Structure formats: C-alpha cells, structure tokens
TrEMBL record:
GO terms for molecular function: ubiquitin protein ligase activity; zinc ion binding. Keywords: Biological rhythms, Cytoplasm, Metal-binding, Nucleus, Phosphoprotein, Proteasome, Transferase, Ubl conjugation pathway, Zinc, Zinc-finger. This is Ubiquitin-protein ligase E3A. Residues 64-84, 140-178 are annotated as: Disordered. Residues 65-80, 149-164 have a biased composition (Basic and acidic residues). Pfam families: AZUL (PF16558), HECT (PF00632). Residues 499-827 form the HECT domain. GO terms for biological process: animal organ development; nuclear receptor-mediated steroid hormone signaling pathway; positive regulation of macromolecule metabolic process; protein polyubiquitination; regulation of circadian rhythm; regulation of primary metabolic process; rhythmic process; system development. It catalyses: S-ubiquitinyl-[E2 ubiquitin-conjugating enzyme]-L-cysteine + [acceptor protein]-L-lysine = [E2 ubiquitin-conjugating enzyme]-L-cysteine + N(6)-ubiquitinyl-[acceptor protein]-L-lysine. Its EC number is 2.3.2.26. It is found in: Cytoplasm; Nucleus.
Length: 827
C-alpha cells in the first residue's frame, strides 16, 4: 500500500470515529453512528484511527443520507479540516522560511489579528510534506517563493509537466539533490528556525496552534516510518524532527500531555541510520541546546512516571511514552559523548571467544537464551562507532542522564528477564544503561550472577546423577591460613584448567582446622587475607605510592603470571559473590579491564608526579632541545633500585626531544609506563578477571568508574544511614546510653577518622553500592567498664564494644583502637 492510500484510509477511520457513517442502525463499535459508541475528542480519535488502521478494523460505507449531504458540505469540510489561510495574500503557503514568518508577523501586528498566522502555522506544522521543505539553507528566493496566490499556484500546476528548465530559478527546495557526502550536513537553517521560534513562542495563540499541529502531525509520521519506510526513500524526512526539537517550550505542560509523547513515539520509529545522523548533528550544537533536549526527554519520563502507578502487573517497561522517551534520550546521550572529548583509539586487543561446535547442556535443555552473553554492542553505538567507554569528558556529565524517578519504579527482576530472553518483544531499560543508577544496574548484575550460580548447581546435580558421583554445587576452597596464597593459587588454577565453569558457582571457603559454615563472612575474610598478602610491598608484585595511596603493577616483579591471574580472579569473584574489597587501584586499571589502553591523561591519577613533569614539558616556552636535554630513552628503577634504560623508539638515545616531537615523546612515555612495561603482568591479571566475568553483562552495563564502585564500594559515607540500619546484641539497644554516646562520638569525627572506623569495623574504608544503609553492622556488648580497647570481627561487620563508664573514655578508647588497628584487634 502506498503512502497516499494509507493516509486516505486513516482519514476515513477518523471521520468514522468523529462523524459516523450516517446509518442510525449501525452496529460497528468503531463508528460514531453506533448507539453504543462513546464520543471521542479529536486527539483521541486521531490516535484511535491509527490503531484501527494497523489492525485493519471494519470500515463502514457512507449511508445514502450521508452521501447526499457530503457533497454540499465538501467546501466546509475542507475549510474545517485544512488550516490553509484564506486571507488574501497568504492563500497558499508551500513551505515556510524565516522571511515568510517575518512578513506574516508584520502583517498580523499591523492589523492586530493573528488568525492568518495561526492558520499558516497550523497547516505547515501539521503536514509532513510542507514541514520537510521548510527553513532550507539552499532556498535562494525564499520570501518570494514560499507563498503564492491561487492563480500562481494553478499556473505552476499547469507548468509542472513541462521540462524543469522552464521553471527558471524558481525551484522548490525538494528539487535540490538529496544526496550529500557529509552525513552531518542537513539543509535546515537551524539558526533561522531558532529565531523563528523566538518570535512565535511569545504568542499564546501561535503556541496553541503548534501544540495542536504536532498532535495532528505525529500519527502520520509514526505510520510513515513504521509501515512505509519513508526515511529510506527521502532522508530529508529527518528535517521534521530537527525543526520540531528546536522548540524550546517542548518541556512545558502544554506539550507533555499528548504532543511530546506522540512525537517521541514517532522519533523512536526512525531507523538506526537516521538516529545516528541526528545524534551526529546534535553533537555539533552548543551545550545549552543539547542540555535543553536532554532535560525535555527527562522531564517527559519523570512526568509520566509520577503520573502513573506501576507494580508487578503494570510494568513501566510497558509504558510506551517512557520507553519512547528513553530511546530518544539515548540519541542525546551519544550526542553528548561525541560533542565532548573522545578517544576511539587506544583500545586493548580483544581476545576472540572460541566458538565450539559441540552442544552444551544448556542448549540440550533448551535454556541457551537465558545463558547467552547478551547484547554486546548497542545498534546505535555500532552505527556511530563510539562507545561510552571512549568518552574522556562528555558535554553533559553521565550522572545527569540518570532518572531517579524511573529507577524507583523499574522492576529489575522482570527487566532482567526482558534483557536476557525477551529482547525482541519486550523493552528492557538495561539496553539503555545510561538512565539507570549503579545501584539499579547492580541489581540486574546480581540476578545474572545468581541465575548462573543456580544454573551451575543444577547442572552439577544432573551430571552427578548421570555419572553416579557426589554432587558439588559450590566453588569450594579449602585453604590454610599460613599458606593461603599457595593453596588458593593451586586450587583456582586447577579449576580454571579443568572446569572453568566451576568459577561461576557460589564461593564456599573453609579454613583448614577451623569449624564454621561460610555464609559470607568466611569468604570476606578469605578475600581480605589474600589481598593483604598479595599487596604486601615485601612481595614486590605491586608498587605503592605514599602520596596517592594507590597500587600499581611492578614491571620488575619476579613473580610469575599465575600470581597476577589470582589477583584478577579474586576481583572477578568479589563482583560475582557481591563482596566489597579493600583494593586501591588507579582508574586506569578499570579502564584497561574494560578494553581501553592507558594514555597520558591517565597518568594524572596513577603517576601524578610524572604527569606534572610531562605537562611542564608540553607547556615549556623555551628551547626544549637545549634546555631540557632529553632523548627518547628513559630510565626507571627495578625491584632492587637499580636503573633500567629503555628506548621509546629505535635508537632512542640518539633522538633528542624537541618542540616538534615532544607530544610524541609524551605519548610514547605514557604508553610505556601504563601499557608496554606491565603488559605481561596486566595480561595475566585481566585473564583471571575475565575467567569469572566474561559471560557477564558487566562490560555492557557499567562504565570503569562504576566497576570500581562494584569492587571497592562507594567513597560517599552517610553515617546517618548506617545508624538507622545498625543492629545491637548482647544487651545493647538503640536507647542504651553507651550507644547514644557512641553515635554522637562517631558523628563528631572528621572524614579521615570516619574512614578509619569503617576500615576497623568492616575491613574497607568504603561503603557498599547503595551506601552505608546497605551495610549490616552489629554492635555487641563486650563486658562492663574496662580499659580494654574495642575489637571487631570484620568478616561479620561486628563491633565488640565494652560498656565504658563515660563518653570521654569511649572516645579515647575508640580512637586508639581505630588508629592503631593494624596488627591487633582486627580479627
């Protein structure tokens, strides 16, 4: 069916819903002449007409009485349905330009009557063909040609069959060639559109006409894009979206009810190539325009969410307005990335997953969809060739794209199912992870991890039944405290070689010679002990910076790769088992884990002194060669403090650093420090990490800073929230005087003292994802007044607090305990 025929059918459905067929005995439930029909307003009728067209609903034939009257009313119908101006001088507007609007405004202001302008705006903005041609850059005689009298229009129609040369210079915009070498180039004069809106939006009558026009326009657009592939035949169809989105009042209540939701639904129907072109265009805008569009879509999402009630049956995923607005927001998200500082190069080499021809047990059971890796690349991301990971500094901070109202109502268990299984039929907000907070995304990751754990447990049971062996549903590690690294390394290495899928099982740790069931506390203690030993400077696997308090890979380490693989495994297992680690890496480590190489920008975090030196070199205004006397050979110290020379280029000691090549020197220096010198160590480290997380949606959902938060926790500490969730044991309660004194003391501490207390009690100075309110801390009574210090069981987040006789003594004992905790008291 062509576009004209489809449009005609929709108009017939609309008239059937508003006027009826004229048959008083009509039984069609979708006809206004039916006695049971509930009257609809024009907006509702337009939306319903589109629905009826899609399902090919029954269409009444006009009753004879209706046919007789229709001929008499044809002229009136045309004047009611088509807002074409009849005022002399503006009888037929073919497209709009800034000059046309100025002339119309001037004429209307002189007469004090804006009805002609309202009709013209209504007609143009409700017609895709006309709006598509409006506000073109390439229209030489815009003011003269954009509107003509009826006689001139008739004359033009008579000439339309003649050769195009006879039209002379009077060419309509659509006659310009559609193709363009530059995908960013659109032939809309955007600055002119903005000036026009500035003039029009001061008039309430005109704005009302704009609202109504968009409501009338969007059902046709949705039809065009969904059924007629109109963008493929005419890429200039994108002009409509460009023009409408320049309306700075789209976020106002007049649009939020109907017009903007319908517009977003139409925009979400654009093909990926069109959305990419739109995103590239918007990335060239000034920040204030991109932010306005972001806030427009965010406001629509928030308005819709707070105006409705959602639950397990009525999901926000089924709300077409929220879904469409989120998909539109994605276009702005990528525009913000492209418009900022981006590094699409410097990517780590990705190891291809080996595909096996053998059927897995999951496939044999028909469950392969649940355990597939999930979407690795967003279609729009692939089209644009840029990822959130490539962003160094976006125009709009990532945090501004998170919608808190949406995060409060999304059901992550259901959303996860849509994400993994029903992606084709159901929308998942995890396909737009930028709108979700790290807390919400961590819930999705939790479901993914738990389902994999239960899956491995189930498969183990099936295998054991077939093979007649004792089932082993957990990843069991039995270690000796005094040989914890050796035992863990041997056991995990055997598992990773023999059956890597066992790493997906729930971790269960047992210390040899000790009784106890691992309900999370023993695993946490295991992680703490392993990390404490591995990061011991005496072992030499990592170097420690006293200024930044961060660790970095020791390029001169004598340890083999297996030790670094163990560290990566521990980090992966911590994420997989929802455990916070006391790890202090610079952000570049997490960027490298996600697939980016380190660059000179990362040195500010990992090697601040070197970063400052290189920055001074780049900014030096004197004679670099003579004053600095640097070459492309650098030196660093090995494990024993001996200098090691390294050429950044072949025969680097013979190549001086000059003003012309100093940028290259900085790039090569940073690449050596962050990538080349630690390649062996980091490759093993990443291998261990991916053993656990390679099938997880971690890389798809989280940015590097969010991965750090998953592993290490949040730096933001809210002790008020911790106080509300803390439990008491041994005779204490929240009303005990000692407890009241305790919290007054804690709240009076400085930031550093609070971190020391958290480290003393939980084993890490950070809060879990979601804040300290998610931490289950216990304060237990440990005897009456005494000079003994408070102690803690970090594996259970338990503080053992004696009932001191005074608040002053409590403060003094507590400060001493948290300040000198290393070596005693922390079990």
């Amino acid at each position: 069916m062509n576009r004209a025929a489809a449009k005609h059918l929709i108009e017939r459905y609309f008239r059937q819903l508003t006027e009826g067929c004229g048959n008083g005995a009509c039984t069609n439930e979708f006809c206004a002449s039916c006695c049971d029909f509930q009257p609809l307003d024009n907006n509702s009728a337009a939306a319903k007409a589109l629905e009826l067209f899609k399902i090919n609903a029954k269409l009444c034939n006009p009753h004879p009485s209706k046919k007789d009257s229709s001929a008499d009313d044809e002229d009136g119908k045309m004047s009611d349905g088509d807002p074409c101006p009849t005022k002399e001088g503006f009888s037929d507007v073919h497209y709009l330009t800034e000059a046309t609007i100025c002339m119309l405004l001037s004429s209307c202001e002189e007469e004090g009557d804006y009805s002609a302008l309202v009709r013209v705006i209504g007609r143009v903005f409700s017609n895709t063909e006309i709006l598509m041609k409006s506000f073109r850059k390439d229209d030489p005689d815009a003011a003269e040609n954009s509107f003509k009298t009826t006689d001139e229009s008739d004359k033009k129609e008579n000439q339309s069959e003649r050769p195009s040369e006879s039209l002379g210079a009077v060419a309509l915009p659509e006659e310009s060639p559609c193709g363009t070498d530059d995908p960013l180039e659109v032939r809309v004069d955007i600055e002119a559109v903005r000036r026009v809106y500035d003039k029009l939006l001061t008039n309430e009558q005109v704005e009302a006409a704009l609202v109504n026009a968009i409501i009338y326009l969007t059902p046709n657009m949705e039809l065009d894009l969904e059924y007629l592939d109109v963008y493929e035949t005419n890429p200039d169809y994108l002009n409509i979206f460009i023009i409408v989105m320049e309306n700075s009042n789209l976020h106002s209540p007049e649009y939020l009810e109907v017009a903007l939701p319908q517009f977003c639904k139409a925009m979400s129907k654009l093909p990926v190539a069109a959305l990419a072109r739109l995103s590239k265009l918007w990335s060239t805008y000034e920040l204030r325009h991109i932010r306005r569009m972001m806030e427009t879509f965010q406001q629509l999402i928030t308005f819709t969410v707070v105006s409705n009630e959602y639950d397990g049956e009525n999901l926000v995923n089924d709300d077409e307005t929220v879904v469409a607005a989120t998909q539109c927001l994605k276009v702005v998200f990528y525009a913000s990335i492209q418009g900022g500082d981006v590094d699409v190069e410097h990517n780590e080499d990705e190891e291809e997953d080996s595909e096996s021809d053998e059927l897995t047990l999951h496939e044999l059971l028909g469950e392969e969809r649940l355990y597939k890796k999930g979407p690795r690349v967003d279609p729009l991301e692939r089209e644009l060739g840029v990822r959130a990971l490539d962003s160094i500094n976006p125009l709009i901070p990532f945090e501004d794209f998170i919608n808190e109202s949406l995060n409060e109502v999304v059901e992550m268990d259901k959303d996860f199912t849509f994400f993994k299984i029903n992606a084709e039929s159901k929308f998942s907000f995890q396909t737009c992870p930028f709108i979700l907070s790290v807390i919400t995304k961590s819930q999705g990751l939790y479901y993914d991890n738990r389902i994999r754990m239960y899956s491995e447990r189930r498969l183990t049971a099936l295998y054991s039944m077939v093979q007649g062996q004792q089932p082993n549903p957990y990843l069991k590690l039995k270690v000796r405290r005094d040989h914890i690294i050796d035992d863990a390394l041997v056991r995990l290495e055997m598992i990773s070689m023999e059956n890597p899928s066992d790493l997906k099982k729930q971790l269960f740790v047992e210390f040899e010679g000790e009784q106890g069931v691992d309900e999370g506390g023993v695993s946490k203690e295991f992680f703490q002990l392993v990390l404490e030993e591995i990061f011991n400077p005496d072992i030499g696997m990592f170097t420690y910076d006293d200024d930044t308090k961060l660790f970095w890979f020791n390029s001169s380490s004598l340890e083999n790769e297996a030790q670094y693989t163990l560290v990566g495994l521990v980090l992966g297992l911590a994420i997989y088992n929802n455990c916070i680690l006391d790890v202090h890496f610079p952000m570049v480590v997490y960027r490298k884990l996600m697939g980016k190489k380190g660059t000179s920008l990362d040195l500010s975090d990992s090697h601040p002194a070197l970063h400052q030196s290189l920055k001074n070199l780049l900014e030096y205004s004197g004679d670099v060669k003579e004053d600095m006397m640097l070459t492309f050979q650098i030196s660093h110290t090995d494990l024993f403090g001996n200098p090691v020379l390294c050429d950044l280029k072949e025969e680097g000691d013979q190549i001086p650093v000059t003003e012309e090549n100093r940028q290259e020197f900085v790039h090569l220096y940073a690449d050596y420090i962050l990538n080349t010198s630690v390649e062996r160590q980091f490759k093993a480290f990443k291998k261990g990490f991916l053993m656990v997380t390679n099938e997880s949606p971690l890389k798809y959902l989280f940015r590097p800073e969010e991965v750090e938060m998953l592993i290490c926790g949040s730096r933001k500490l809210d002790f008020e929230a911790l106080e509300k969730t803390t439990e008491y044991d041994g005779g204490y309660s929240k009303d005990s005087q000692i407890i009241k004194d305790f919290w007054e003391t804690i709240h009076s501490f400085g930031e550093e003292q609070k971190r020391l207390f958290l480290q003393f009690t939980t084993g890490t100075d950070r809060a879990p994802v979601g804040g300290l309110g998610k931490l289950k801390m216990i304060i237990a009574k440990n005897g009456s007044d005494t000079d003994r210090l408070p102690t803690s069981h970090t594996c259970f987040n338990a503080l053992l607090l004696p009932e001191y006789s005074s608040k002053e003594k409590l403060r003094e004992r507590l400060l001493k305990a948290i300040t000198y905790a290393k070596g005693f008291g922390m079990l």
